[in-house]
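Budget justification aside, the reviewers requested a transparent look at the raw inputs and outputs of the sequence design task funded under Objective 1. We therefore reproduce one unedited record. The lines immediately below are the structure tokens for a 280-residue chain.
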């Protein structure tokens, strides 16, 4: 069997062309440019790189980014003040708070301070709840990017057994609810799960979001499965042992070039949507 390569990089590039046109129209109609504010707290080099990539993606489609950088000593109160200012700033259409923030900060409180209409990264409890109930909301960027990638390749979801390994607030948990929303039968696995290999073996659609390099073994995965690797580790290694799978699964995401580009593309797409809503 020749597996379909779920080429996130290509889908993102195609979508950027369409988004550029939409941004041009917003500018022509309103004379204004949609702006995504990015907030980076601390000096983690990987986080700084991701935030830079997000700003670059804004500029590629003609949007602007406003990069807010705060020291690692920032308090919850200071970060809440920054977010309140951005909420109140009519020129800002989307707010991204890069995860993780330093441990003295209450990250959940700060995520939830983001105004719903500017939550283009889909991190608020309110946005999550609305998404889970099937109400309109911006999706959490990584799982929404994965749903868009599956959709681009017309991967059937309804009635399939989807197994999500990981239940983090911005990846595994919203991923599971999105798959449920498309009528998959969903199993969520986590660090207390017993007999992970047996559950993974049942997956028609497998999403790896564990945060450990090649933790999910190829031999656990059944022939013909759709394999989505959300993990990303230095050297381009994911959470799933991919190499032995490529000629016996139905489809798989490469690392890099799979989920990562779709995450950024979804953030930008949802920022453009927010710009369209407020600038017409
Ligand atoms: N490409 C992209 O756009 C993005 C990629 N990532 C990548 O995705 C991966 C996951 O990220 P994230 O969700 O933020 O990570 P977290 O560390 O927040 O969550 C990891 C999850 O995996 C579970 N887990 C840990 N150990 C085991 C185990 N032994 N068996 C089963 N489950 C386990 C944890 O369970 P428990 O809840 O019980 O602790 C937790 O739910 C990382 O590799 C990260 O780099 C993340 C965000 C975006
Ligand atoms: N509030 C918040 N939202 C996020 O979406 C968020 C976050 N915090 N914190 C960190 C993770 C990580 N993340 C990535 C985005 C793109 C790539 C990506 O594009 N990676 C490229 C490779 C990049 C490289 O070459 O290093 C790829 O997979 O092809 C990876 C990881 C978003 N995250």
């Amino acid at each position: 069997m020749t597996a379909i390569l779920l080429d996130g990089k290509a889908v993102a590039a195609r979508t950027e062309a369409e988004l550029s046109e939409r941004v041009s129209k917003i500018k022509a109609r309103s004379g204004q440019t949609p702006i995504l504010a990015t907030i980076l707290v601390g000096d983690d080099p990987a986080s700084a790189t991701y935030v830079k990539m997000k700003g670059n993606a804004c500029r590629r489609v003609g949007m602007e980014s406003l990069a807010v950088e705060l020291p690692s000593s920032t308090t919850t109160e200071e970060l809440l003040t920054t977010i309140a200012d951005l909420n109140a700033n009519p020129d800002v259409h989307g707010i991204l708070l890069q995860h993780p923030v330093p441990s003295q900060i209450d990250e959940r409180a700060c995520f939830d301070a983001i105004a719903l209409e500017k939550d283009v990264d889909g991190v608020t409890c309110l946005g999550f709840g609305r998404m889970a109930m099937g109400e309109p909301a911006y999706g959490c960027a990584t799982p929404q990017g994965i749903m868009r990638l599956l959709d681009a390749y017309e991967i059937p979801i309804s009635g399939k057994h989807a197994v999500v390994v990981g239940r983090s607030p911005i990846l595994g948990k919203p991923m599971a609810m999105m798959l449920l929303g498309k009528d998959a039968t969903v199993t969520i696995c986590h660090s207390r799960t017993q007999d992970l290999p047996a559950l993974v073996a049942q997956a028609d659609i497998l999403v790896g979001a564990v945060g450990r390099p090649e933790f999910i073994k190829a031999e656990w995965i059944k022939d013909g499965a759709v394999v989505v690797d959300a993990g990303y580790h230095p050297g381009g290694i994911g959470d799933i042992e991919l190499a032995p799978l490529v000629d016996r699964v139905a489809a798989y995401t490469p690392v890099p070039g799979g989920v990562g580009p779709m995450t950024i593309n979804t953030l930008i797409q949802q920022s453009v949507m927010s710009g369209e809503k407020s600038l017409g």
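The two ends are 48 Å apart (CA to CA). DSSP finds nine helices and nine strands in the chain. Computational costs for records of this kind are itemized in the attached budget.
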